Amino acid sequence: MSPGTGPSSAPDPNQHPNRNPADQRGRPEGTAADAPAARAPEAGAPAPGAAAAAAPDDGPSGAEAAEPTDETAERAREAAHASRDREAAETAKVGTFASLKIHNYRIFFAGAVVSNTGTWMQRIAQDWLVHTLTGSAAAVGMTIALQFLPMLLFGLYGGVLADRLDKRKLLICTQASMGLTGLVLAALTLSGNVEVVHVYALAFILGVVTVLDNPARQTFVSDMVGPGLLRNAVSLNSANFQTARIVGPAVAGVLIGAVGSGYAFLFNGLSFIAPVAGLLLMRTAELNSAERAPRSKGQLREGLRYVGSRPDLLWPIVLVGFIGSFGFNFPIWVVAFTDRIFEAGAGTYGLLNALMAVGSLTGALIAARWGASRTRWTVASAGLFGTLLMVLSGAPTLWVFAALLVPTGLVGMTFMISGNTSLQLASDPAMRGRVISLYMMVFLGGTPFGGPLMGWLTDSYGPRVALVLAGAICATAALGVAMALGRVGGLRLQLRLRRGEPLIAFVPRRPAPGGEPATGTEPATTQTRRASSIPGHSRTVNGPSGVNPCDR
C-alpha cells in the first residue's frame, strides 16, 4: 500500500478527478478541512441538471439523445464556469509562507537551504578550478556542457522512473549521490591530485544523477503540499534557490581566497546531509502519494503521446523550449555589456548578477503570495519577458541597464514558476514525472544550442543586436503559442479600443446558440466525443475539467 493510503482515505466520489484522495492531508497544520461543496460534473460528463433534462421519463432516443438541447448546453456551460470559479477561489491569494506550515515541506525546505548554498559554492569553485588548471574559457564551457548533456540525452527516462518509483526513496539516493561527488572532488583537490579530466568526469556523473533527481524533486512537492499550495511551494523553492544564488558565490569567493577551492567542495558534499536527513524524518502518512505507474513497456512513448494529445501541455512546453534556448543566456549578455558596452570590470559584473538574482527572488516571493496558476499567465509572462529583453538591449547607460535587470529577473522567474506549476496541475499524477522531465529537458537541453548561437551573434554583431533578437524570438514565440491555444479553444484575437477594456483579448469565433454570449467552454457531450477520439485517454483535449486551455 502506498504511504498515506488506507481505509480512511477512500476516494470521495465528489472529489475533483485530478486530485489524489489523500490531498486533504496536504493542508497546513492546525487548519480544519473545508466543508464539502457542491462539485461540478467531471469533464466529459453532463451536469446533474443536464442529465435530468437529457433523459426525461419518456426518454428520447436516436439522434435526439445524441445532441444536447440548448438548455442542457447552457447548464453545462454554467457548471463548467462554476467549477472554474471555485477552483480559482481555492487557489487565490495565500500567505507568502503558507506551505511552511506543513511539517514535511518545512523540513524539506530547511534541508534545501543548506544544500542549495553548497551547490552554488561548488559551481563557483568548480569554474575557478577549471580555469586555474587550464587557463581556458572553453574548458569552463566544456564542464558546463558535460553537466547538462545527460539531461538532453536521458531526461525523459528520468521522468519514467520518477513516475514508477517511490519519490522519497529515490530522492534519498540521488541526494546522497550528489553529496558523494562533492566529497570525491574535495578529496582530489585537497590532496593536490586533481586534474581537469577528473572535473569533467564528475560533472558528467552529477548530470546523470540530476536526470533522476530533477523530475522526482519537482513532482515530490505536490506529494508534500497537495495541489492547493503547489504554486506557493514551487515559488518558495525558487526563492530558496535564488537566495542561495546570492549567498553561495559570496561565501565561495571568500573561502577560495582564504583556503582554496577544495574546502568549498567539502562544504557542498557535507551539505547534502541536511536534505537526506529531512527526507528520512518525514511523516510518510501525511504525504499525498500519487498513484505510481506500473512497470510496462513503452512508458516513454506513452508519455510523449500523452503530451502530444494535450495542447494545454504541449504548447507551453514548446514555449519553454524557445525561452530556455534563446532567452536565458544572461551570462553571455551581461559579460558582453559589462566589458564591451560599458567598459567596466569584474566588480560591476558581480553587481549586475546580484541585481538579477534580487529580481528573481522578488518574483519568486510574489508568486508565492499569489497562489493561482493559469496557462495564460505563463504565456503573458513570456511575452513580457521578451519585451523586456528588447528594452534592455537599448539601455543607454550602465545604471539604466542595471535597473532593468531587476524587473527582467522578476518576470523571468514568474514565467518559470507559472510554467512549472500549470503543467503539474494540468497533468495526471501518474504522468506528472514524464511531463516535468520533458519540460526540464527542453528548458535545460536547449542551452547547448541556443547559447553558442547567441554567443556567435554577440561576437559578430554586438550584444545589443543579439539581445534584441533574443527578445523578439521570445515575444514572437509567446504570441504564436497564444494563437495556437486560442485556435484549440475556438477563440480568436480581437483588438479593442473601448475605454476600460483590455486592448487585446481572446473572444469566441462564433456566438453560442440562442444568442447567448459564448463562454469558450464546450457542452459536456461535445467534450465526451472529443475525448473518445484520443486513443487510450478519457480526457478532453481542452484539459481537465473541460475548461478551455486559454482560461487556465
From TrEMBL:
* Domain Major facilitator superfamily (MFS) profile: residue ranges: 96-489
SUPFAM superfamilies (alphabetical) = MFS general substrate transporter (SSF103473)
Q: Where is the composition biased (Basic and acidic residues)?
A: 72-90
Report how it sits in the membrane.
Multi-pass membrane protein
Classification via CDD domains: MFS_MefA_like (cd06173)
- Give the compositionally biased regions (Low complexity): 29-66
Name the record gives this protein: MFS transporter
- The record lists the organism as Streptomyces bohaiensis
